[in-house]
C-alpha cells in the first residue's frame, strides 16, 4: 500500500521517496521470541531478521528503527551485520538516549544510528553526550520528538544547531507536530542560502 501511495502521488519509490519503518520490536516479544498476533505465529530472532531482510530486498526501505527487541542484543548485532550496507539501523528502545549504551553498541556492531530524545535522557547534557557518542561512532543521528509532546520547539533548534542531519517529528497533523515543522521552515528562511537539504547523504554508508 505504501508503494501504491507513493506512485499515485506521482513519485518514484526508491528514487524520490524512501520508506522508513519503526518496528518497535520490544512490543512484539522478549527473550528472543516474537509474537505476530494477527498471523497467530511466533518467530525467533533469526526468523524475524530473515523477514525484515526480505522486506529490504523487496522494497525501498532506507531506515529501520528497533528491528529487534531491547533485550535482544545478539539479534541486533546479527541484523546490523546483514543489513547495514542497505539501510540505517536505528536504536531507540535499545539505546534510550544513553551515551554508555551507544558506545557499547557501537563497539559490538549493533545499530548504525541513534534516536536522540531529550525527554528520554532527562537533561540536555545527557542528551548531548548520547548524540556525541553517536557522532564519534560515525553513526546517523536523529533528534526526535516523543509521546506526550507539547508545542515546544526546542528539539528543532537542537537538531539544526547540533547538525544532526535528521529530525523525527511525525506526520503533518496535530498542533504539537506542526509547531515543530513550522519552526524548521522559519529556520530555513532565516538561514537563506546557507540552508542545506542533506537528503540521503545523512544515511550511514551513503555520505
List the helices and strands and how they pair.
Blueprint: H1 2-8, E1 19-22, E2 29-30, E3 33-36, E4 41-44, H2 45-58, E5 61-65, H3 73-83, E6 88-91, H4 99-108, E7 113-116, H5 118-121, H6 124-136, E8 140-144, H7 154-161, E9 165-168, H8 175-191
Parallel strand pairs: 1-5, 5-6, 6-7, 7-8, 8-9
Antiparallel strand pairs: 2-3, 3-4
Overall description:
With 207 residues, the protein is of the alpha/beta class. The chain has 2 domains: 18-94, no CATH class; 114-193, no CATH class. The protein has helices at residues 2-8, 45-58, 73-83, 99-108, 118-121, 124-136, 154-161, 175-191, and strands spanning 19-22, 29-30, 33-36, 41-44, 61-65, 88-91, 113-116, 140-144, 165-168. The strands form 2 sheets. It has a 6-stranded parallel beta sheet with strand order 1-5-6-7-8-9. The chain has a 3-stranded antiparallel beta sheet with strand order 2-3-4. The mean pLDDT is 94.
